[in-house]
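Section 3.1: Structural characterization of target chains.
Under the original work plan, the team committed to producing a structural model for every single-chain target entering the pipeline before any wet-lab resources were allocated. The record below documents one such target. The sequence was received from the expression subgroup and is listed exactly as submitted; it comprises 179 residues.
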Amino acid sequence: IWLDIIWALVVCLVLLLAMALLVRTFANQSFLPILTQDLNAELFAYEIYAKKFMIVPEPYRILAAINTGDYQTVVNLCAKGMSGARSDKKKLVYFAALARVYFELDDMEKLQMICEDFYDYVDQSGNAEKLESSFPLMPYYRFYANGDYDACLAFCKQRQAEGKRSRLSEIIALFLCAM
């Protein structure tokens, strides 16, 4: 009987992982282009919260809140998520979202604190290079928080030279250069 229970748990776990992958794939194909190509943050947020038949992953809810200017929701989601985050990458997603919020609010003190926490966490993880490369805007935020505007400009020029990205990424790059 114990073997049957173990197999049932394994099957349930496999089904759960398959459903999580399916939801992420569906969200990437149906929701993300609304934001990254059509640049319609309001419709993106509506789609994220109106789809009652599925629970949209938290990073999409954070993206919806950031891009509609609902910064308090971002801070709340990140605070809640950080306390329960089990993976390094997930925790760093929250740091990056908070950095963007404090950058957009021009709150240098909190931006500097978040950047320091981000890099401290990356250094402690033991997988620094891979994790850092997953969050390409964090160096810019760090330069900006430290008042190194020449490094910010060099960063922007490098990002523009990198090539094709989504329309949203191009606009963010232009916005960063304008700052």
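The chain has eleven helices and no strands.
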